[in-house]
Design brief:
Length: about 100
């Protein structure tokens, strides 16, 4: 593609993930959010200067569990998410859009 061509991102997304509203597209969106949230937790842990083992100890889990969360392989429950945040010295705020 040269710089003078118009690139249709929506068409490319449809090719790869299906049309908006399709089960394939919805699954891809869900997986993207899981990966995004996993990255947020990884970054938060690193910013807190904690190892996976240290964070795991603080919440009563094992290092492998933290690793699976950070790689997006599992999604923690809401209760575990709050424990993770508190263990890193963070708070969770729920507010209207």
């Amino acid at each position: 593609m040269n710089n003078k061509e118009i690139y249709d991102v929506s068409a490319e997304l449809e090719k790869v993930f299906g049309v908006e509203g399709s089960s394939t597209r919805e699954k891809a969106i869900e997986e993207a959010w899981e990966d995004y949230n996993a990255q947020i937790l990884l970054d938060a842990r690193k910013n807190s200067r904690l190892s996976q083992a240290q964070l795991a100890e603080r919440i009563g889990a094992n290092k492998g569990y933290i690793s699976r969360i950070e790689r997006g392989l599992i999604v923690p429950s809401i209760a575990t998410f709050y424990k993770l945040a508190a263990a890193m010295g963070l708070s969770v705020e729920l507010r209207p859009n």
